[in-house]
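In the previous lecture we treated proteins in isolation. Real proteins rarely work alone, and many bind small molecules. This record shows how such a complex is specified: first the sequence, then the SMILES for zinc ion.
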Amino acid sequence: MELSLLIPIFLGLLAGGLINYLADVLPHTLRLSTTNGFARPLCLNPECKAPFRWTDTLLLRRCPKCGHGRSLRTYATLVLAEALSLFIWFSPPHTLGYALGLVVLTYLLLVTVIDLEHRLILRPLSLAGLILAALAGIYVRGWQSTLIGGAAGFGIMFVFYLFGRLFTRWRLRRLGKVNDNEEALGSGDVTLATILGLLLGWPLIWFGLLLGILFSGAIGLIIILVLLLTRRYKTQALNVFIPYGPFFILSTFLLIYAPMWMSSLVQK
Ligand SMILES: [Zn+2]
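The predicted 3D structure, ligand included, written as tokens:
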């Protein structure tokens, strides 16, 4: 084995560990603002919730109090971050390069994990993303395409957001409810589209958002088919919500990190 391979292996683990830590801690500390120094992740067992010691956190040990294991996500994130770190080490995105590529990737994975687990795009994290994406975008292709990309991402998603609100109102009337806090598209998705717009630039953001909508539409179709097949369509169809964020992130990831796959797809 080449010694230089230790770099992406180590940095991949570091990125995965960081994502796990922040995804465990941020949704609670940012909302409740109870940070005293560095917050520690809590045990997942709702009856225990003991804070983990740093060594236990790092070594992925079980909870010393109740013996509850670590979440499946903890391991999945580590494996994924490791695999992606090696992937971009061997075929770095020619625009970003390995190091900046890994930083952006770490951010995108973190947002995905938190969105999937909490259906939430945290505001401070969005702000950090806007800055990171603007800097990365300007570094790669100058400020013009970057800023237009960001504005386009915002504008396109804002229109969808307005349509989503109309749908939400229609849905609540159909269900005879006043409000159940379910939104077709959250305002966080608008911010996310702005971040991805800065990253992809104009005109690629167009394609990125279109691809994301196609991905989520495909998953939506599968869910509706399953509901139809299991005869739960009438009761469940209006209660199915698909988070859009992860699909937009997936399409952005493919466009930045695997453009060769994407262009071969388009040319066929
Ligand atoms: Zn415990």
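Summary for your notes: The pocket of zinc ion is lined by residues 43, 45, 48, 50, 63, 65-66, 68 (CB under 6 Å). Residues 143-175 form the longest helix (33 residues).
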